[in-house]
Amino acid sequence: MNNANPSTPNEEIVHVGRRILSLEQVVAIAEGASVSLCKEADYREYIQKGARFIDSLLHEEGVVYGVTTGYGDSCTVNVGLDLVHELPLHLSRFHGCGMGEILSVPQARAVMACRLNSLAIGKSGVSYELLERIETLLNLNVVPAIPEEGSVGASGDLTPLSYLAAILVGERDVIYQGQRRPAIEVLQQLDLAPLKLRPKEGLALMNGTAVMTALACLAYHRADYLCRLASRITAMASLTLKGNSNHFDELLFAVKPHPGQNQVASWIREDLNHHEHPRNSDRLQDRYSIRCAPHIIGVLADAQPFLRQFIETELNSANDNPIVDGEGEHILHGGHFYGGHIAFAMDAMKNAVANIADLLDRQMALVMDTKFNNGLPANLSAARGERRPINHGFKAVQIGVSAWTAEALKLTMPASVFSRSTECHNQDKVSMGTIAARDCLRVLQLTEQVGAASLLAMTQGIRLRIIAGELQQDSLTASVAQTLHQVSADCDLLTEDRPLEALLRNTVAKIQQRQWEVCR
Ligand SMILES: N[C@@H](Cc1ccc(O)cc1)C(=O)O
C-alpha cells in the first residue's frame, strides 16, 4: 500500500455525496481514483442551507457556542463578531504542532476522501465550495503533508486534520508530483485562490475521525489479502512438511461452523486437493501451527465482517461537532468526533493480524529445523556435498522472521486502554483510535514481511521435495503450482549464500500491491 503509486493512471471515478462509500472505494481513491462530487442543484442547495443557517444565527444572535466562541474547554470565552472570521484560521494554526512521520500520499488521499465524505453528508454546516475544493485537490493529486502523531482520537483527529485545513487556506506544505512544497506556491501554480474559511469550516474540517478511519480502510484491505495469503502459505507449508491434509477435511469443519474459519479451511483443502474423508487414519497429527491454521487465520476472517461494519459506519457518518441541521434549523452539540469504534476495530485487527505473524513464524520454525521438517536439509539450504558446510539457506531470514514477529506481537497492546484526560479536562476520556490504527498498519507491515519470507521459504521447500522426487510437480493443484511458478520466477533456488534483502523487499511490495494470486 505504501508503495502504491497514485500517479499511475487510474480510470475509476468514485462518486461522493448522497451515497454510501465503501471502504474499497476509499482504497481506490487512495490508489489514484478520481472523485466526483454530486453536482445536482438540489444537493448543492441542501449543502448551502447548512452554511446559510450558521450565517443567519450569527446575524440574529451573534453567537454559536463552540463555533464563534473559543474551542473545547475555552467555549466560555466569547469572541466578538469582528474577530469571529479569524477563528477558523487560529484553530488550524494552533493545531499545527504535529510530529512524527509524514503520511504517505495514498494515506493522505484516503484522509481527504474520508473527510470529504463525512462533510458531504451535509450535517456540518460547510459550504459547497469547500467540498468542491477538496474534490479539486484530490483530482489534481495535491495532498497535505500530514505528520501522523498528535491525535488522541476523540476531539477528532484535530492536529493531523489541521494540515488539511491549512493547505485549503494556502498555508503549510503540500505533496505534489512527488515533491513537498509550500501550499501557497502550488495553489498559485494551479491557479487556485486560497479559501477563506467560514466560521464553522475550520472546526468541521478538523473535528472528526477522518485520519483514523482512512488508515482503518487501508488496514482492512491489507488484512483481507493477508488472510488469503496466509492460507496459501499454510498449504505450501503442509506440502513442504509432508503434512496431513485430513486436518482440513470438510466434515471435520462442518462441526465447528465459524464461517471465516470454514472459509480458510476450504481454501487450504482446495490447495491440497483434499476431497476424500478418512475412515480411519494412521497419519500423524501435525503440530498446531499447521493443524490449527484455520482456527488462527479464521479469527481474522471471522472478525472482518464486523470490523467492516464498524469502519464503514464511521466512514459514512457525520463525525463532527456541533452537528448542523440546516433543514430543521438545529444546532446539536455532542461528541461524534469520538473514535471509539475505530479504536476498537484497530485494536482488534492488530491482535488478529499479529497472531498470523506468529503462526507463520512457527511454520517457519518447523521447516527450518531437521528435527521437525521430515527429512529436508537444515534451513532449507539447497547446497550439496562439499558446498553444504559453508551455506546457510534461510537461517538469517528465520531470525528476521522471529524479530518481526516479536515486534508485531509487542504492538498488540490495545491503544484505547491508554485513554487520558487532556485539554484542561474537557477531553477527559478519549479513544486513542489513531494510535490504534497506526499500530495496526505497523503490525500489518511486519506481518507482510513475515509473509514474504514464508512464501520464499515454502517455495524453496516444495522445490526441494520435487528435486528429491518426494513430490510430483503434476500432483500440485493449479493454484499452488501457480504460486510456486510466480515466486520461483523472482527467486532462484537458494543454493549458495547470497544477500536476500532486495528479494524480500520486492516480495513485500508485491504483497502490498496484491500481485500474488491468492485464495479466493
Ligand atoms: N472537539 C471539541 C472542540 C475542540 C476543538 C479544538 C480544540 O483544541 C479543543 C476542542 C468539541 O467539539 O467539543
TrEMBL record:
GO BP terms in the entry: secondary metabolite biosynthetic process
SUPFAM superfamilies xrefs: L-aspartase-like
N-terminal signal peptide: none
Residues that span the membrane, as ranges: none
UniProtKB keywords: Lyase
Regions annotated as coiled coil: none
Broad class of enzyme this protein falls into: lyase
The reaction(s) this protein catalyses: L-tyrosine = (E)-4-coumarate + NH4(+)
Record EC number: 4.3.1.23
Superkingdom classification of source: Bacteria
InterPro entries: Aromatic_Lyase, Fumarase/histidase_N, L-Aspartase-like, Phe/His_NH3-lyase_AS
A single GO molecular function term of this UniProt record: tyrosine ammonia-lyase activity
One Pfam family here: Lyase_aromatic
Protein name per Swiss-Prot or TrEMBL: tyrosine ammonia-lyase
Organism of origin: Shewanella cyperi
Lineage: Bacteria, Pseudomonadati, Pseudomonadota, Gammaproteobacteria, Alteromonadales
